[in-house]
From TrEMBL:
SMART domains: Aldolase_II. InterPro entries: Aldolase_class_II_sugar_metab, Aldolase_II/adducin_N, Aldolase_II/adducin_N_sf. It comes from Phascolarctobacterium succinatutens YIT 12067. It comes from the Bacteria. It holds the Pfam family Aldolase_II. Gene3D superfamilies: Class II aldolase/adducin N-terminal domain. The keyword Metal-binding applies. GO terms for biological process: pentose catabolic process. Keywords: Lyase, Metal-binding. This is Putative L-ribulose-5-phosphate 4-epimerase. Residues 13-189 form the Class II aldolase/adducin N-terminal domain. GO terms for molecular function: aldehyde-lyase activity; metal ion binding.
């Protein structure tokens, strides 16, 4: 019980810290975007709907279960909770989900383009080309289903006319994925603007790099290897 209480408190504090990082890194503005992380097999901590990140406190974070029902909290959970729970239910190894409205990812999403596998760091962490999920209204079950379908085994997806979603084993990895995704989207937009041919990495090379990242490099980043 004590362990669970500590897990809940540290999850809520980590969500607030990640919210500050999203603002600092210009991946969201105002109260848009949302963050969640798993507390245990059943419970998820998620940002409340409509609260700015600068003033967010751990007490504002809402606890929901895997079905999206509120377990604890004084606020309404994020309106995109269906996207979050759908990812946790589809990927048992997912420990955190971050949804951003970052500029270059949103620019590609407005054109219904994905992020091509043209730079090594994006394929290392995400696992290949990032697809753009079919459009559905925000907050709907349809959007959650489209998101999971377009993820297709990767750790990031664009949401048509909306933004991006990334997941990771924990909040640090999900945040890194969101940053690298935005950088790759910016590079893709710059390349497209030149009109020159862009060379995608081969599937074989992508698999080698992603496999190495999963087995070794991500552990080194977390100080585990
Ligand atoms: Zn959104």
């Amino acid at each position: 019980m004590k362990t669970q209480l500590f897990a809940k408190e540290s999850a809520c504090a980590a969500i607030v810290e990640t919210g500050h990082a999203l603002i600092e890194k210009k991946l969201v503005a105002g109260s848009w975007g949302n963050i969640s992380c798993r507390i245990d097999a059943q419970n998820i901590a998620i940002t409340p709907s409509g609260h700015g990140y600068e003033t967010l406190t751990p007490e504002d974070v809402v606890i929901i279960n895997r079905d999206g029902e509120v377990v604890e909290g004084k606020h309404i959970p994020s309106s995109e909770l269906k996207v979050h729970t759908a990812i946790y239910n589809a990927y048992p190894e997912a420990g955190a989900v971050i949804h951003t409205h970052s500029i270059y990812a949103s620019a590609l999403a407005a054109m219904h383009h994905g992020v091509p596998a043209i730079i090594e760091d994006i394929v290392q962490i995400i696992g290949g080309r990032v697809e753009c999920a079919e459009y559905a209204l925000c907050g709907t079950q349809e959007l959650a289903e489209n998101t999971v379908r377009a993820l297709n085994g990767k750790k990031a997806v664009l949401l048509a006319n909306h933004g991006a979603v990334c997941w990771g084993k924990n909040l640090a990895e999900a945040l890194l994925a969101a940053e690298i995704l935005e950088k790759a989207a910016q590079i893709a937009v710059i390349c497209a603007g030149t009109g020159n041919k862009v060379y995608e990495l081969s599937c074989e090379d992508v698999d080698v790099m992603h496999d190495f990242y999963e087995k070794h490099y991500s552990k080194r980043q977390q100080g585990e290897e």
